[in-house]
Amino acid sequence: MQKKQPLAQRIKTKAFWWVQLRDLSILLIVLFVISSYLQRNMVSGSAPPLKGITLSQQGFDISNINKPTLVYFWGTWCGVCKITSPMVNSVATSDDYRVISIAVASGSDTDIQTYMAANDLHFAVINQNQPTQDLSNQWGAHALPSIYIIDDKQQIRFVTSGVTFSWGLKFRLWLTSFY
After folding, report:
1. I want to staple 149 with a disulfide (CB 3.0 to 4.6 A). Which of 80, 107, 158, 163 is the partner?
2. d(CA 96, CA 74)
3. pTM exceeds 0.85, yes or no
4. pLDDT tens digit sequence for 105-142
């Protein structure tokens, strides 16, 4: 039986790095396939209608936006949203971009406000708790979180689903200002 070399020696070999590259490539391909599958129903092109009253009783109508806007579908029950919401919150604190979120199947306004306060989140929220308000289906947001980056002409420029980072969101919003 052959004894395995110590890690310090294996790191110095080309074979070790080829195995690492192969494994990383496989992982990236799997993540790309999963991401593509989750985003398959997300709409593109012109943004569907989005009107509502936020939890702070402010009206919102996507047809009135005049700067890049992040539209965020999420839920208080969504584990991945617990990671992504602080990233969206960091974008919402900037005056350069607009953020509107739609809480899907997350209970009453009070339930959502309690969740927002407990997690120190400060972005605008429309509660999608009425059966007549089916925004997530209109937008194709079937996997949460779903994020849409909209330009000032109500065109969807970027979509993503799952975990994302604030620098990535800010970069895509910044790129949108050049369309």
Report:
1. 158
2. 22
3. no
4. 999 999 999 999 999 999 999 999 865 568 988 999 98
